[in-house]
Structures are given as C-alpha cells and as structure tokens.
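Our working data are protein records whose layout never changes between entries. Getting from the letters to the tokens is the skill we practise here. To make this concrete, we reproduce a full record directly below:
***
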Amino acid sequence: MKDSGKISRMTGEKQGMKETQGRSGRGEPGRRARRGNADNPLKLAIVGNPNVGKSVIFNNFTGLYVTVSNYPGTTVEVSRGSTRIDGVDFEVIDTPGAYSLLPITEEERVTRRVLLEESVDVVLHVIDAKNVNRMLPFTLQLIEAGLPVLLVVNMADEAERLGIEVDAGLLEGRLGVPVVLTASTLGRGMDTLRRRIVEFISTSANRSANQLRFAYSDRTEKAIAPVEAMLEADYPISRRAIAIMLLNGDDEIRAFVSKKESHARELLGRVDEIAREVGEVTPFAYSIAMERQAAAVALVKGAVTSNAHPRSASTGFSGLLNRLTMNPLTGIPILILVLYFGLYRFVGGFGAGTVVDFLETVVFERWVNPFVDNLVRAFIPYEAIGSLLAGDYGVITLGLRYAVAIVFPIVGSFFLVFSIIEDSGYLPRLAMLVDRVFKVIGLTGRSVIPITLGFGCGTMATLVTRTLETRRERVIATLLLALAIPCSAQLGVIMGLLATRPVALLTWMIFIGVAFVVTGRLAAILLPGESPSFYMELPPLRLPSVSNVVSKTVARMKWYFLEIVPIFVLASVLIWFGKLTGLFDAAMRLIKPLVVAMGLPPETAVAFLFGFFRRDYGAAGLYDLAKAGALSGRQLVVASIALTLFIPCIAQFSVMIKERGIGVAILIAAFAFSAAFTVGYIANLVLGFLGVIG
C-alpha cells in the first residue's frame, strides 16, 4: 500500500555519508578509537518503556555501586553505575521510562536529553517480549536518529509461558542492529548480552552499512525532505530525526535548532508552512506514528509467533490475582492487607519498634551519647558551643541520633518493602486502582508512589514528588503530604495512643481522611493547569528477585544518607539556635492560646512545638501527657488530629523549600498551621456535642 510505510536498507556509501552528516563530531572512527577505560569509560544508556526490566538489567551490570542524582536542570533522578566487560569499562546510565523521542512527561525529556547530550556509545533499547510490535516503533525512532542501538528483547520467560516465541536472529536481520533475547530476572541471556555489547563496540564502524532505513509514505517523505535539506549545522543525532521532530512541533528541538542554525527564522517558517499543509489532511504526528506502527507490524511478521492455544494471562492463579488486585471490591481489601502487614507491622512494628529501640536506647543512649557528652565537656569549656554538638539538642546527640537511630531503620525497612512491592508488579495495579479517586483531588494513580512513601517518611516522599508529570500535580501532592499523611514514626505513636480506644481511632481516621479529600479537591479547583493524563504499563505479577530488591534498597539508602542526613543536622542547628536565642519561648507563647481554644491544657503546646522539629517527638509529648492523666479521651483525639495536620517537621519543610521554592513552602506551611487548629477546634465542638468520647 502506498501510505503504509516502506522498509528498505541503505547501501553502505550512501548511509555512511548520511551518518557522517547526521552525527558529526561523534563519527564512527572516533568511537572505534575510544576503547574505554576507568578514566574515560564508554557510555552505555539503557532506555525503554516503564516496567520492561531496565532496572534489573542495570543492577545486573552495576551491582551495588550506583549513584542516584537529579539530571542537571531537572527534578528527575537518573541512576548511574559502572561495569567492566572483557576489559572494557562502561558508565551505565539507567534512564527514566520513555515511550518515544517526542516527550510528553519530564522523564521522557530527560531520557532524550541523555541521548542528545551525553555522547552515548551504546543504547540498549529494552522491550517486553510479549509486546514487541507495540514497542518496536520506539526502536525505529532510535535507529532513525542514527543512535548506536542494541535491541534487548526482555521477559522472554514470561512470553514463553504465554506461548509467544521471538526469533531474535530474524528480527536482527530485518532491523540491521544486534538483537538479544533475555530473561533478566533469571539472569538468562545476560552473558550473551555482554558479549554482543563488546562485539558491537568493536565493529561499530561498519554498523551503518546494514542498519535499517525506514522510508515513510511519499506524502510524508515529501514533507521531511526539504526540512532535512535546510539543516546545515552539526547535530548529535541524524538530521532526518531532527526534521521529523520539528515537523511534529517539538518546542525543545525548535529552540535547539534556533541556536545552531544561522538561518533559523527562515527554516522554522518553512517548517510551520509544511506542517500546516500536511496537517490539512491528517496531523503530521498522527500520520508518522501510524506509519511507524505499520512498519513495526511488518517487521515482526514471522519473527514473533504465538501458539494456537497459548497459556492466557487471564487464566490460572496469576490471572485470578491480577483481576482481584484491579477490582475495587477486592482490590481495596488487598490494599489494606498490604498496608497493614507491609507498613504497619513490618515498617511500624519491626522498623520503627524493634530496630529503633535497639539503636536509640542501646547504641546511642547507652554508648554514643554519653561518650560524646563526656568528650565535649572535657574539651569544650563553653557551654553554648558545646550544646551545639552534645546535650539534648546537639548535632551528634540529636541530629545524627535522629537520622541514624530513628529515621534510618524506618526508611530502610520501608525501602525494602517498597522494592518488593515495586518488583512484584503490584504497584502499577495499585496506581490503576486509585487513579479514579485521585483524579478528584487533582492527582493521578501515579501519585500513589509518593503518597505511599509518605507513610514511611514525609521528607523522602516530598523528594519523590519530582517524578510527577506536572508542576500542579507536584504542588498538590506536596501539600497533601505536608498536611494529612503521618510518617511512620508519628503514626506508630498515635496508633499506640488510640489503639485501645476503637472509637477514638476511627474518629481520628475520619477527620484526617476528610481533611485529605477536601484539601485535595480545593487545591484541584483553585490551582491553575490541566489535569494530567495517566497511562502505565501493567507488568505481570511475579516473585521479586532477591538480588534486585537488595540492590535497589541499598542504592536508595545511599541516596538517603546523601540527601536527608544533612537536613537533620541542619535541624539540630536550628533547634540549638532557637533555644539559645529564646525563639522557642516566643513560639510557645504564640501557640498556647490556640491550644487552649481547642479545649486542650496549655502544656500541650510543647508537643506541637517539638512536632515541628520531630513529628514523633510531638506525638511522644502527647503520650507523656496522656500517661500522666493530663488528657481526657476527647482531648487526646483532638490533639492527635491537630498534631497530624500541623506543619510538617523541619526536615520535610527544608525539602519543600528545595523542591517547590520558599514561597510555595511557606504558603503550604501556613495553610497546614491554620488547618490544624481550625479542624482541631471543630473536632472539639463536634465531639463535645455528640459526647461519643469521654
């Protein structure tokens, strides 16, 4: 058919010329000469859709030696590690999930920036063996861009169970790039992948002679050709790919081209003219996407086969479990069980209980703190300076103790549970389950990740909001985390306070739940911007790989120490400064009238003040008052509600400033401060009127 897209292969001379033009400054002779050593490693980027096993392959290559950091100028994290294959050193980059070189989300923009800016020597495009024809259009884009692509058809074991077989050799012959079949969770095919990478590097100078040349319909080619011909500057990818992105209306590429081309105004004007002409029939982006998809279908014909009676994913125990987790009637009870055993019992009970008790009461209170206190008294005669390091609010005795003995085991146990949930394939199902509800409050199912993380540590969860698609969604999620999501340390103490009073616990949950929904809904109405779209791959449910879970947990804990521990040290310095200058006393005088207005004794103000510096300290203050008989049942519920809604701890507030800016952080804190005492006042009136809690 004329418009279905045509597949051909460039002859060596013509393709080689095109490569030289399109990849100037990164030509194959230079690539071949660079062998790759520890001081100057080759770069290997792993790209692909979410949930195709990229991180498993990344961890298989790099082990535990991984760094996680924001990509420059963005809030998206990129993992980097190193590996050596047959004496060749590589820097391995695990890029965020992407569906195309035409980005929609910030993650896709970062992935494209990695490919455009980092002179990548090998691009491992990882696809799902069960969905080859759906993911192959992205492969065609990468090849079209002149990038050094090696296709990894992963999850072969799962495809085989469904009766799907992939002929890697036939697919390789058609694409003209190496194709390797793997089952990364089992380690199958990984040795072959390493061998093919080294072969690919050593023979990359001749790669272009065999690489697929995908030709579009005549109408589409006539649109691309004049734009490609007008491009004169050197680009990190082929001019053909640049031309297609321009015709698709890509603003980033337009800005990129504007800086490089001397005749940019004339060029972009011509691009707009051609795009309008083509768009009168069918939008260019739609036409080219359909033609790529048709080409993908033609390429996989005969290379991907399915048995007549495959074992369907909808049958058997796995299929049943899949349906149960997605159906609200059964999915919500399953979610409650996961939260109960995963968060409450393991993180709250084991992490926040057993491990914290040992580290805090034995390691720090018995050994570390007395040693530091004695050392400071012996060598620092000035009490004001000594109290900065030791004593009740010292950097070491409070800041490091809090970070290492309290938050570290809580966050560590949470990371472990989260990695298991993530690798099992349950997380995308949870996102799909809550998506409809979250849309009411301006979020999507994707927000379930930072919201769930918030029950471990609000500081960490606020950092993770950077993965959300729009600024509006990030602000709403940050607001809700600051207001109505108690961290595991605070949650554990409040649960201990109210567990013996079922009505009191239910009342607290109702007030916090209503505050969460109402605040989210108001934010969704008042904040400008469109509701984000939501789509997510649903990987099969599987048993997590122990090595992958461990490597993810260790990498995240390294990130925790680098990102969060300095914030706790800063918090200790601020506490020391507040005590030294009398700001604490001034804050107490401000809070006491508000506390009394909620029907609470004035001493409760101390719990709120300390709740700003450490959430669990605030809850622990209520525990002491309750134990002393200073709080009635109603007062205990009111105080728990208000303290949960109170401004976030100083560590979380610091991260809010870092992520959202000081203006937004102050507005959120001011709203939380007002909401805490307003809702507490209302709760006191309602409970007093109903008389349900004495």
